[in-house]
Specification:
4 helices; about 45% helix; about 20% strand; alpha+beta; 4 strands
């Protein structure tokens, strides 16, 4: 499961959960996998999330849409998006 992978990589600093950090990571090609809630369209950050999805499409980043209720609930805490990074960023 992608969330389990995310949780193990948190300790190594290879994740991002704040939208501004994820956006910057996408700009420099540092995102390996973007994990997005299927309910992102309900979020106040909707436009920012759309921009992130468009940026991700322009890189070799994988995009995973989460539909499971438990994952959606977890993603609500992080503005509907989290990311697994290719490498650590500052």
């Amino acid at each position: 499961e992608i969330i389990a992978k995310y949780e193990t990589l948190v300790k190594e600093g290879l994740t991002a959960k704040r939208n501004d950090v994820i956006y910057k990571a996408l700009q420099i090609g540092a995102v390996d996998t973007l994990i997005v809630s299927m309910e992102y369209y309900n979020n106040a950050q909707f436009k920012k999330i759309i921009q992130m999805l468009e940026l991700a499409k322009g890189t070799s980043c994988k995009i995973e849409f989460a539909a499971a209720k438990n994952i959606i609930k977890r993603l609500e805490i992080d503005n509907e998006v989290i990311a697994i990074l290719r490498y650590k960023i500052k």
